[in-house]
Amino acid sequence: MRIATFGILAGLCLGSPTPLRAADLDFSALRGGSYDAPAAAAGNWDGAYFGAHGGWSSANFGFSNVFQPMVANYTRATAFETALNVSTLLRPQSVRRDTGSFGAYAGLNIQYDEFIFGGEIDYTYLGLTGRTTDFIGRSNVTDGMYRAAVLSGSAATKIEDYATIRARFGYDAGNFMPFVTGGFAVGRAQVADRVEVQLGEYDQATYRSNLGSATPAYVFNSGYRVFDQANPGTAVLASPVVLGRTKERIVGGIAAGAGLEFALTANILLRGEYQYVMFDDFDGHKSHINTVRGGAAVKF
Fold first, then answer.
1. Average pLDDT over residues 163-183
2. Which pairing describes strands 268-282 and 241-263: parallel, antiparallel, or unpaired?
3. How far is CA 178 from the centre of its chain?
4. What is the number of structural domains in the chain?
5. Structural domain contains residue 8
6. Burial class (CB in 10 A: 0-12, 13-18, 19+), 275
7. Distance between CA atoms of residues 129 and 275, nearest Å
8. pTM value?
9. Rounded to an integer, what distance in angstroms lies between the CA atom of residue 147 and that of residue 89?
10. Does residue 21 belong to any structural domain of this protein?
11. 8-state DSSP, 17
12. By three-state DSSP, how is residue 55 classified?
């Protein structure tokens, strides 16, 4: 009986007009109803990551009002301030400096459909210093008194390093993720300001009334190292008074940027990024930093 059955099956197979092929067989039942194909490496941005970055930073250093408080304190309640506005005479110009920068970053991505939300922290070292100088002299005659002021100032700002904490928003474009970012920054800054002030005055009205007089009156004067009563035009101002301050400050600001991330593999992420950081008005100093950088990270 078994031999007859086998013969019938063999005949059916050999006599079939279309031979059976492996591709015609459905093995889905063997996989189970919940089978899913493995996720592709690209397009899955979920997870924490850690990496390093390096690039080029260009910073603009501003020095608004760095000298005024020191000079105003020195000349307060004097005719030099009221007649010459001595504390407002120095007006240092802003400067731009460039340097290489490097650091590290870490963050977390959470993906919803094609949108990615997350947060990131980073650290950047640049050690960048901006310096400026200014020099000015002024004189006038008020109520018969001749007054002269000579000021020379120098100021410097050094941004040693900074860190940021930012939110990120990106879009899943397969292997690529364009993103924007924004948040807060905190940095270490050193400021150094120095002003040399020379002030001198004499009673020009009395001097002129003495001309041709047999008994000339004393000509009041102050601030001069050499003063000829008969010829005040040859007077020499005394050595300048030096005013200065040096501080190390922890400064706060804002950070923003945009970039493009590339998934080289499921766990290796490369990026190009632009970042803007603004530290504004600390003791009259400010710094705006623009950085273009690249980075590489491992995603867990």
1. 97
2. antiparallel
3. 22
4. 1
5. no
6. buried
7. 19
8. 0.79
9. 14
10. no
11. S
12. strand
In this predicted structure, what is the pLDDT of residue 43?
A: 62
Q: Is residue 239 part of a domain?
A: yes
- For 156, the token pair is 């410097």
- The one-letter amino acid code at 284 reads G
Cβ atoms of residues 227 and 235 within 8 Å:
yes
| Average confidence (pLDDT) over 204-216 | 89
Per DSSP, what are the bridge partners of residue 254?
184, 278
Answer yes or no: are the C-beta atoms of 42 and 263 closer than 8 Å. yes
298: left (phi over 0), alpha (psi -120 to 50) or beta: beta
Give the per-residue pLDDT at 40.
Answer: 41
Q: Residue 177, exposed/middle/buried by CB under 10 A (0-12, 13-18, 19+)?
A: buried
Q: How far apart are CA 11 and CA 16, in angstroms?
A: 8
Q: Rounded to an integer, what distance in angstroms lies between the CA atom of residue 32 and that of residue 26? A: 12
Strand partners, 145: 142, 203
Spatial contact of 153 and 193, defined as CB atoms under 8 Å apart: yes
51 in Cβ contact with 177 (< 8 Å): no
Burial of 20 (0-12, 13-18, 19+ CB in 10 A): exposed
Q: Which pLDDT value is given to residue 30?
A: 43
Which residue shows structure tokens 């008994």? 215
Structural domain of 79: 47-299
d(CA 144, CA 186) in angstroms, rounded, equals 53
Residue 152 belongs to some domain of the structure: yes
The tokens describing 168, both together, are: 């990120």
In the chain, % helix, strand, coil (3-state, to 5) comes to 15, 60, 25
d(CA 185, CA 121): 10
Query: Rounded to a whole number, what is the distance in angstroms from the first to the last CA of the chain?
Result: 63
- Residues linked to residue 52 through DSSP beta bridges, in sequence order: 104, 296
